[in-house]
Amino acid sequence: MYGWVWRRLPGSRPVKLVASLVLLVAVLALLFLVVFPWLGPRLPFDHNTVGGAIRPLRVASPVDPHARELRFGTFRRVSS
Amino acid sequence: MPSISPRATVRTVGEILLTLGVIVLLFVAYELWWTGRVTRHDQSALVHTLERQWAHGENPAAVAAHPQLGTAIAILRIPRLGRNYRFAIVQGTSTADLIKGPGHYPGTALPGQVGNFAVAGHRTTYLHPFFDINELKSGDAIVIETGTTWFTYRVENVPGTSARYQEIVSPTDLSVAYPVPDQPNPSAVPRLAVLTLTSCNPRYSAAQRIVIHAVLVARQPVSAGRPPALAGSAVT
Lengths: 80, 236
Prior knowledge:
The complex is a heterodimer of chains A (80) and B (236). Chain A is 42% helix and 0% strand. With 80 residues, chain A is mostly helical. Chain A has helices spanning 2-8, 13-39. With 236 residues, chain B is α+β, with helices and mostly antiparallel strands. Chain B has a single domain, classed as Sortase, Chain: A (Beta Barrel), CATH 2.40.260.10. Chain B is 25% helix and 25% strand. Chain B contains 3 helices and 9 strands. Chain B has helices spanning 6-55, 60-63, 95-100, and strands spanning 72-77, 87-91, 103-104, 115-120, 141-145, 149-155, 166-169, 193-201, 208-221. In chain B, helix 3 (95-100) links the parallel strand 2 and strand 3. The longest helix of chain B is centred in the first third of the chain and has 50 residues, at 6-55. The termini of chain B are far apart. The relative contact order of chain B is 0.14. At the A-B interface, helix 2 of A face helix 1, helix 3, strand 4 and strand 8 of B.
C-alpha cells in the first residue's frame, strides 16, 4: 500500500519525500479535525449528563415555570 | 495488470492493520490531549468575554432565566481541586456546549437561586474539569462567581432529602437534577439553594454518573471581595 503510493508520487526522491510528508499531514488533519471530532461523542467514553444522554434536559424549576414537563429521554417516569 | 502474489496480499493486509492500529492510538491521543487544547482555547475566550460583560454591568446569570446556549454565565472555583482551579460555566449541556466547559442544565436554577443549580462536566476529555470530583469531601467549598455576587456552596448531604453529597447513579437518573434532588416528584417546591455536579463514572466510561451535591451557605457582593473559602486560591 505504502509502496504503491510511493511509486505513484512524481518527481525525484526528495520531491517524493516532501510530497509524502504533505500527504501525511493532510491525513492527520482529516483525522483530528473531521473524523475524530465526529466519532468522539458517539463512543461511550465521556458522557456526563443525566436524563437524556447528551442532549439538554428540562426539569421543573422555580425559575422556569414553563419547563414543568420532562421532555425526552430514557429517565424513569414519575407517576404522581 | 499483473496478477497479485500472495506475498503482496499479505503485505498489504499487514500494512492496513498496522495503519488501523496507529489510527486507534492517534484517537486516544486526540481524546486525552487534543480535546483539552480545544477547551483551553474556548475557556480563555469565555472568561475574557464574561469579565468584559461584568465590567459593563451585564450579568448573564442574573438577568435572564434562559441565558443564550453556549455562552458563559458564571465562574466555578473548587479549592479542593487546586488553587488554580477555575472554569467558566456555559449555558447548556449539549455536546457542543460541554466542549467549551462545564455546562448548566437549562431550566434548572441559576447560581444562588433556591432550587438546584445543576452543572455537567467532562471527566476525562476536553480539559476534564471534573476529573477529580470524586475527591470532594463533605464540607468542601464550591465557589460560584457571577457579575454581582460570590456564592459559596458547601459539599454535604442535602438536608431534608435522601441525597448524599456524593452519589453514583444510572445515566437515566434525572432526579439528581430536580429542584429538590432525589425527590421522586420533580415539582416539589424547593426550600434550599442546591448545587449539583454530574460527570461520567468510572473514568473513561459512560456506564454511570457520579453526582456531587452542595448547599448554599454564604453569599456576598463582589464589592466585598473574595469569599473566605478562596483564601488559598490564586487570584485570577
